[in-house]
Amino acid sequence: MTARAARTGEDAEDSEDLDVEEVLALVNEAHGHPVGGHVPAPAPRAGRQEAARRPAPRHRATPWPEARATAARAAARTAHRAPVSVTLDDALGLTLAAPLSALTDLPSFDTSAMDGWAVAGPGPWAVRDEGVLAGHAEPDPLTDGEAVRIATGARIPLDTTAVLRSEHGRTDDKGHLHTTREMAHGQDIRPRGQECRSGDQLLPAGTLVTPAVLGLAAAAGYDTVTAVPRPRVEVLVLGDELLTEGRPHDGLIRDALGPMLPPWLRALGAEIVAVRRLGDDAKALHKALTASAADLIVTTGGTASGPVDHVHPTLRRIGAELLVDGVDVRPGHPMLLARTKEGQHLVGLPGNPLAAVSGLLTLAEPLLRALAARPAPEPYTLPLRDEVHGHPDDTRLIPVVLRGDSAVPLHYNGPAMLRGIAAADALAVVPPGGARPGQETELLDLPWATAGIGVCFT
Question: Which of 260, 425, 443, 450 has its C-alpha lying 20 to 30 A from 341's C-alpha?
Answer without folding.
Answer: 260
